Amino acid sequence: MYTHTSLWTEFWEAREELIDPSFSNHHAPESSLLDIRGEEMASHGMNQACLAREWLLMKQNSFIHVFKSGQLVVIALVTMTVFKRTQMTVDMVHSNYYMGSLFYSAIRLMTNGLAELPLTGSRLPILYKQRDLYFYPAWSYTVPAAILKIPFSFLDAVLWTALTYYAISYSPEPERFFHQLLILFLLHHVSVSQAHFIASVVRDPSAAVSFNVSTLLVMYLFGASLPAWLEWGFWISPLTYTQIGASLNEFHAPRWEKVSSSNATMGQQFLRSHAPGRSQTTISHQRVSKLKGEDSTNMTHGQELPHVGTSNDVSERKKKGIVLPFEPIAISFENVQDYVDTPKERLELEDILRSKKPMPGYLLTLILMKRGGRIIYAGELGKHSSKLIQYFEEIPGVPKFNANRNPATWMLEVTGPSAEAQLGSDFAYLYNKSHLCCTSLAERTENVTIEIPYILLQSLLFVTITYPAINFYWSAYKMIWYFYSMFCTLLYFNYFGMLAVSLSPTFEVASVLTSLCFTLMDLFTGFIIPGPQIPKWRVWSYWICPMVWSLKALVTSQYGDIKKEISVFGEPKSISAFLKSYYGYHHEKLGVAAFVLFSLPLVFALAFAFFIAKLNFQRR
């Protein structure tokens, strides 16, 4: 029956083509999707199959994509309430708020591709296996993956721009709206391509997330004021071109053309202070550079994976079979019977059971339960069952073990129902109270406390390197505050990550959840828009943000008592007065920040211990 199917016919024709080079000229169909060219499939059918598979995988993970777009809408609505249209006026003070909102939009779209890391990492093992079996080259996976992500990038950019552009009161011209939409769309697709590239290089999902976050931090650092020998980092960052394009698109609008006292428009004056020497033509150059950067990112991802060939190579090959360097021989079989030898391990096990000799290495750990499924022993056996014997001999009333007896027979005798009734003891209760029983509370406590030495060492290394490098004030008081603030910050972020994992059914959902929380923290920390400028009914979000207290402790401890005068918006002010009036950082309230920083790790650790015990996402 099988020999009459179409699949058998196609297979037999492919076999004949490999054996006889002239067969393909007479029998091979030109439009067959299973047309074999040496080691590869036809490129058209291969691309169709990869596109169909990628689309199927995306539908299977539709919850993650919907959840990711939903959280983008939620953050956009929150951003609208922070940068209220009625509070945003056109002047030099509010120009910083406009710039902060543009920067936050870039951060939000850049981090939205974080969920692609675990998704891509989970698919790579199958890709490598199929690639090594010559199913298709690596680019046949990268191209469909990049193409199918374009609609999602466009959707996210449209959702964000449509909700925030006119609500924040950017320039009302329609062409500027579409300019910003194009810039954010390209940035989002670059972030997705970057996630694919990092996942293909690092491959481990957890390490890939850490590496991607480190890459984003480097991009943020390179977007600031840099020495001359580091300017190359400024120009290779995708975030740089996004900021240049978005800022020029906004601050070259007609409403920013008011001439200031310095004989320059407000838009030009602001751009000179943030990006000197930029011209209007930069935005068109920026678009082209973004397009080129996106293409190079996708090509780099395709080139990173070893591949068999390209579509051009396939099309250029002659449509004929392979000429074998030897005379082919046809072999036929009749009444074929297969036999499988008995595994060596099975023979050894049968030999052991027959001779009743000990089994070293076959049984290391034993779980012993009584009727009802209650555990009375779970742990290592030890050499010659020494640990098992020692545990039961420590129970009062249990007879001692005789060296000439079988440990298994002795264990069954002393733990039977009659032995329990004679001793008047419950072995399950005794096990729960013993040192062998690791309770969930003890395990959760270990998971929390084991992080403290590691974070302590991490903080010590960070402070030792950065404090003298940044050239902070050389004071033991300020250095201790810097170390304390950094230690508490790293500790509560570590516990917060553990809490997010305990609240999520999968690693992918945890990645999306943490990206949501981190971007909300970025919005309410106070450096994108100062805390006193946040609407009063929204200020509670500012006070519950953990990063607010970290910045209060870090900045106030270093500069809250400095009376040196600086120029702020054209007016002389002391540093301490500027921190009070603009950011709301009071040096006399430094103790409150220290107490909150001490409490945050405890809150997150207790929440993790509670939810890891109460929530269970396993399905049986």
Automatic annotation (TrEMBL):
It is found in: Membrane. Residues 293-313 are annotated as: Disordered. It is a multi-pass membrane protein. Residues 48-251, 447-559 form the ABC-2 type transporter transmembrane domain. It comes from the Eukaryota. Coiled coil: none annotated. Keywords: Membrane, Transmembrane, Transmembrane helix, Transport. InterPro entries: ABC2_TM. One of its GO terms (cellular component) is plasma membrane. One of its GO terms (molecular function) is ABC-type transporter activity. The chain crosses the membrane at residues 63-83, 146-168, 180-202, 208-230, 454-474, 480-497, 509-529, 590-613. Its main location: membrane. This is Pleiotropic drug resistance protein 3. It comes from Vitis vinifera. The gene is PDR3_5.
